[in-house]
Write a structure and sequence with these properties.
CATH topology of the domain at 229-325: Glucose Permease (Domain IIA)
Mean pLDDT: 70
Shape: globular
Number of strands: 15
CATH superfamily of the domain at 229-325: Glucose Permease (Domain IIA)
Length: 331
């Protein structure tokens, strides 16, 4: 009888213990499975969040342009379809010629970012005034459709004569290639000429302006400098020049959000400039400013002062260079 009671006593101790262990095991597996799913979702989100702020263009058939030549150490980079997480695999990507903002993440490199956007490393370095090719998490990189030419030095050539040949800015060529004025160039060495173009054969028809296509939004855009005289028609990337005295107010052509405001540096010849993204999916760019009156993230109203006419960047006198991206330039 004592043996039977002892067995029952042990059963009351052991079986609840086993049951409790089973319950704990069940919840442990449940939370473990949930953690694994959360980690997988986190990885998936990180892969699709490479482009944190991108230009969007709602025109389904935009005119392609910009960035015709992209060179890295003598090799032309072409857009490529990569594994999940690259720009090639993201459905809503910025279209050719659109300005984008990329926020650097942990583990990013200039090479990887350049491949995402199908541009050269040099394009990113130049547009963001990056020193020593160093980028850090959280850095905001401007991705511009900028082209360049790699020139092979021939006998008798100097950096000055090469810059003159391509009608390039000597100071920019020196800075871009980390050269000093009067530096001797070895025959056969290469020099990158930012924003230069290879000579094209003479055509019987005028060359096409990049980005000049797209929809027409009549009455949507306000003339950005009141009373200014147009000194040059469509050129570059769907841009025009409006001549006005230095210090003349520059107005937002339409309401929207300021996505770029650079008030220092060469910036690809733009000098000080502002770019605004509008509700219709287009962007406008205002360059060569003497002073920017707005910052990135600002929401501006149509006709609001965003800066003042200047002559920063690649200019010969005070004027505003005004571009419309994603639509026809109405001016």
């Amino acid at each position: 009888m004592g043996a039977v009671l002892g067995s029952l006593f042990m059963a009351t101790i052991v079986f609840p213990s086993v049951a409790a262990a089973g319950v704990f095991s069940f919840f442990a597996e449940l939370f473990s499975d949930r953690d694994e799913r959360a980690q997988a979702a986190s990885v998936g989100n990180a892969q699709t969040m490479a482009l944190l702020e991108a230009a969007r263009n709602r025109d389904p058939n935009p005119s392609k342009g910009g960035g015709d030549i992209t060179i890295v150490g003598g090799t032309a980079l072409l857009p490529e379809t990569g594994p999940s997480g690259t720009i090639a695999n993201i459905e809503d990507t910025p279209l050719a010629g659109e300005i984008s903002i990329y926020v650097v993440r942990e583990g990013d490199s200039l090479s990887a970012i350049s491949k995402m956007f199908g541009v050269s490393v040099n394009t990113i370095v130049w547009a963001n005034d990056i020193k020593n090719a160093i980028i850090r998490p959280g850095d905001r990189l401007v991705i511009l459709p900028v082209s360049g030419v790699q020139h092979t030095v021939k006998k008798g050539e100097t950096i000055q004569s090469i810059a003159l040949k391509y009608k390039a800015d000597l100071a920019e060529v020196l800075q871009f290639n980390d050269l000093q004025p009067g530096a001797e160039l070895a025959i056969g060495s290469t020099v990158i000429i930012p924003d230069a173009e290879l000579a094209a054969p003479i055509l019987t028809m005028p060359s096409r302006v990049r980005g000049a296509g797209g929809p027409s939004y009549d009455g949507y855009y306000l003339r950005p400098v009141a009373g200014a005289r147009k000194t040059q028609g469509l050129h570059g990337y769907n841009g025009i020049d409006l001549g006005a005295p230095e210090g003349t107010p520059v107005l937002a052509a339409a309401s929207g959000q300021v996505i770029i405001s650079r008030n220092y540096g060469w910036n690809g010849g733009y000098g000080n400039y502002v770019a605004i993204e509008h509700g219709n999916g287009t962007q406008t760019l205002y360059s060569h400013l003497s002073l920017n009156a707005v910052f990135e993230g600002f929401h501006v109203a149509r006709g609001q002062i965003i800066g003042y006419v200047g002559q920063t960047g690649k200019v010969t006198g005070p004027h505003l260079h005004f571009e419309v991206r994603g639509a026809r330039n109405p001016f």
